[in-house]
Amino acid sequence: MKLIGSLTSPYVRKVRIVLAEKKLDYELILDDPWGSATHVTAHNPLGKVPCLIMDENGALFDSRVIVEYLDTLSPVGRLIPPPGRERIEVKRWEAIADGIMDAAAAAFMEARRRPEPQRSPDWIARQHQKIHAGLDYMEQLLGEQPYCTGVNLCLADIAVGAALGYLDLRFPDMDWRASHGHLARLADKLGARPSFATTKPPASA
């Protein structure tokens, strides 16, 4: 398998962490979907990363679709429960974590990539409101649990860890840890895992 992505995308990192936890071999092909030389559009008509190129079955895109597929490839460390209430709980966590990533990426692009005369402070503020509301929700939901859905690592934790890592990368002054002690504890625990340590984006990116 080949994974097209960037080192800074939290969605790509989520997929890479799953690949590492599942002990699946793949080749990472770096691509800047915003650059003129991007080639991801040859495989994903939406021009987004991550994009997983499979040996026989074409390509998959959207991190949620990719990680669900990857979890079926090996019985090692199942990350998504079978259909039922537990699965819905994991997917709820993934949805809120991905929503935080969406808002953070939108705020970053508006503030850093759009020409200053065209930037909307109201739009950026709205995205930050979503981020903080999402953090508050996850903090309360996590509570004293060792992991998002109980005592074992699952896709929920990977999605949350990727989202929190992206906040650290793009908004280092946000200091979300100060008011979200449970999430900070989880982030530290996840950061010690090889799958998270080896996929941490470069600070200068």
UniProtKB/TrEMBL annotation:
UniProt xrefs under Pfam families: GST_C_2, GST_N_2
GO cellular component: cytoplasm
PROSITE patterns assigned: GST_CTER (PS50405), GST_NTER (PS50404)
GO MF annotations, alphabetized: glutathione transferase activity
Boundaries of every GST C-terminal domain copy: 83-205
E.C. numbers: 2.5.1.18
EC category name: transferase
Span of the signal peptide: none
Keywords, in A-Z order: Transferase
Domain GST N-terminal positions: 1-78
Protein name: Glutathione S-transferase
Source organism of this protein record: Castellaniella ginsengisoli
